[in-house]
Amino acid sequence: MSPRERLYAGVSAVAFLGVVALLSAILPHRAPDNPWVLVIPVLLYALGTRCLFEVSAGFAVPTQIVLIPIIFMAPLPVAPLLVALGYLLGRLPDFLLKRAHVDRWIHCFGHAWAVVPPVLIIGLFAPGPPSVKHLGVYVAAVAGQFVVGVGEAVLGDRFLTGTRVRENLPAAVWSFWITLLLTPLGFMLAGVAVDGPLMLLSVAPLYWLLHAFSQERKEHLDAALELSQTYRGTVMVLADVVEADDDYTASHCRSVVELCAAAGHQMGLAVADLQELEIAALLHDVGKIAIPGEILNKPTHLTEDEFELMKTHTIEGQALLERVGGRLARVGEIVRSCHERWDGRGYPDGLAAEEIPLPARIVFCCDAYSAMTTDRPYRRAMSPEAALEELRLNAGTQFEPRIVDAVISVVEKGLVEETEAYNDAVRAVLATHAATPRLELSA
Fold it and tell me: Does residue 98 sit in helix, strand or coil?
């Protein structure tokens, strides 16, 4: 472990043991008739930690089924320690097979923090066997488990990796929904396990079934990830082809990607829509590889026939991306429409207003701004102020007004880096996944 991780795990463990000692002083002790019956739920808890469900940027485990019986069967102050022990036993195969360093055993205490609120709340307000009359107390106990469990996961990751809380919070909350769904079953098992501990063994086949489902889900996710990486690789290859064919088109496409990403954020687009927008922006001129170089690099204005040929690059781009298929075929539809005007006077199909895909409308506006502020052989670049004024004058005719507002806003606020050092940053993002942390939540 790194010094930072070791510090975090050590402080968490010491604090946890201190809280357990405090619980021993204030909560009633109810010892089971036969302490050995606690071996069953602890081993089942360990088994549950091996049943991982991938959820967004993390994974959940169905241990809630056994966690609740542990709370009602064990002396209350001991329950968090038994949960920590169960987690430690569940990690033993990883330690023995060298899949995790043995020093990380100390994380078992941090994993058990979420058990403290339900133990405290139930111990103070509803000690004894589970009963429907204490339903409100149990709801409060689960709520406390949620707050501490999710908080420990996201704040711990914030300390260890620097990942912002708001980035991990959605995944953590979504993972906890599995806990909520399994909580009623946990209380049902607790009701019968208090008098018949062997009934808990019925959880074993359920775990087997959940494990089979989780493995199947993992295989599907792995296949989807492989396909996604294939698409990203294809985008990289196409971008390289564009760069090799025309240096201006390459740098222009990269600047359009930057501006589109900033405008898309300004407009509140979802993550998936932003990714599609960025790919479309990167490849919006890919069809120009079918246009003769003497037309692309002509130092004077194009003739009417040459311009008609140039306009076919959107159709050529769509045809190229449709041959790739899948998600890039959808991007091809956007690329085809990247020169359609808001008033319907664009090409190649004369689409107007909402008929034009939103990403294409954004790319069109950003493309125009980038073109106006770039030197070309036949004219000098306009100043950013003049280009923005041109966008304003053409809002409602050539461009969608709200997109013009978004582009003007991000440019005037300096949210777009006007730099040639952009290089392959976008393609790096497309080609690889960021090292996102894997949040683990008991469920």
Answer: coil
Contact of 58 with 437, CB cutoff 8 Å: yes
Q: What CA–CA distance (Å, rounded) separates 88 from 95?
A: 10
Find the largest Cα–Cα distance for the chain: 96
Taking a C-beta distance cutoff of 8 angstroms, is the pair 419, 155 a contact? no
pTM of the model as a whole:
0.59
Q: CB neighbours (10 Å) of residue 251?
A: 16
- Sorted by where each starts, the structural domains of the chain and their CATH numbers stand as 3-211+437-442 (1.10.1760.20), 224-412 (1.10.3210.10)
Q: Confirm if 46 and 89 have CB atoms less than 8 A apart.
A: yes
Q: What is the pLDDT of residues 291-304, one digit of tens each?
A: 787 777 777 777 88
Write out the two tokens for 199: 């009934």
Q: Which DSSP category does 58 fall into? A: E
Residue 440: helix, strand or coil by DSSP?
strand
User: Is 148 exposed, middle or buried, given 0-12, 13-18 or 19+ CB atoms closer than 10 A?
Assistant: middle
Residue 390 CA, chain-centre distance (Å), reads 38
pLDDT of residue 142: 94
- List pLDDT tens digits, range 183-224: 999 999 999 988 888 888 988 888 888 878 877 777 776 666
Strand 439-442: give its sheet, edge to edge. Answer: 53-55, 58-61, 439-442
Name the 3-class secondary structure at 441: strand
- Output Rg (C-alpha) for the chain, integer angstroms: 29
Cβ atoms < 10 Å from Cβ of 166 = 8
Closest Cα partner for 342 from 402, 388, 407, 382? Answer: 402
Task: Output the pLDDT for position 430.
Answer: 45
Mean pLDDT of 9-17: 94
